[in-house]
Amino acid sequence: MANDIQAQRPKFSVAISTPGYQKLINQTLQDPKKVQRFVSAITSAVAINPALQECDPATILSGALLGESLGLSPSPQLGQYYLVPYDNKKKGCKDAQFQMGYKGYVQLALRSGYYKRLNVLSVKAGELISWNPLTEEIDIRLIEDDIQREQTATIGYYASFEYLNGFTKSMYWSREKMESHALRYSKGYAAKKGYTFWEKDFDAMAYKTMLRQLISKWGIMSIDLQTAFEQDFAQESADYLQAEDMTLPAQQEPKALAEPEPTADGNAEAGQMGLDDL
Question: 160: closest CA among 178, 181, 144, 137?
């Protein structure tokens, strides 16, 4: 039955060219240049992911339009958001779900114009001297050799921000605390079947968790950030497809971000920087 339903659905490259899809895209984006760029970007993103090509085209378009409304790129190389394939057992087919990447949260936060500085990084063995959760004072001595640092085991994660008005907030989680968090909120990760984002790129998921915790509890959230938090509904407990095509692109260690320059409308432009639901 599932195969019959899947066979009845046209491929995304065909569906996106149909009058109905074209009308929806044009009515949503309106600007012909935006339409052309959007269609090209999402078609390319789907073309390089065989698992996505098997998904219901309507769910791909829905997730992509959400990403577009947030001003984020579907490129997996940028990692701002992902369209994640999963088995929809109720519908007997494969769907795509929108899932924010940690770089998408960074992009939206800096673009809001409230943040002067926003950073998240892993802490390696031997780097943490002290951390005082009461005063949020931390002493870290980073390993200077990049290759040596990359090969050193991660013992924790640190995230911090500073507003333009000088207010700062920071937090530190041990690797064990992050592991406990992942096991508690991701049924797929707890099952250890090898297909969840936590297993494919634990650090990237840890970065996103730190940013979600930090910004949602203490940060100022723009409308786009609120929308991203609310719509990042792709739970790790979902039955995601086990496919190499879902592997996240290699992530580089995030560096301290440059101060964004405010634009005329008060927002800040940020350079280019991809669930748990907390």
Answer: 137
Of the candidates 207, 29, 226, which has an alpha carbon nearest to the alpha carbon of residue 112?
226
Residue 195 and residue 244 in contact, taking contact as beta carbons nearer than 8 Å: no
Paired with 224 in beta bridges are none
Comparing CA positions, the residue from 151, 154, 147 lying closest to residue 128 is: 154
State the average pLDDT for the chain: 81
Query: Which residue stretches of the chain are H helix?
Result: 2-8, 12-15, 19-29, 32-47, 50-53, 57-69, 102-111, 146-151, 175-185, 187-191, 197-200, 202-218, 223-231
Binned at pLDDT 50, 70 and 90, residue 16 comes out as confident
Residue among 28, 27, 259, 67 nearest 163 (CA): 259
Q: For residues 265 and 278, give the distance between their C-alpha atoms in angstroms, rounded to a whole number.
A: 31
Per-residue pLDDT averaged across 57-82, rounded?
A: 91
With bands split at pLDDT 50, 70 and 90, how would you rate the model's confidence at 156? Answer: very high
Residue 77 pLDDT class (50, 70, 90 cuts): confident
Provide the token pair at 108.
């939206």
Report the predicted TM-score, pTM, of the whole model to 2 decimal places: 0.75
How large is the C-alpha radius of gyration of the chain? 20
Contact status, residue 273 vs residue 106, Cβ threshold 8 Å: yes
CA gap 177, 161 in Å, rounded: 21
**Is a pLDDT exceeding 70 seen at residue 118?**
yes
Enumerate the domain spans of the chain. Answer: 2-100, 102-269
Given a contact cutoff of 8 angstroms between Cβ atoms, the answer to whether 245 and 151 are in contact is no
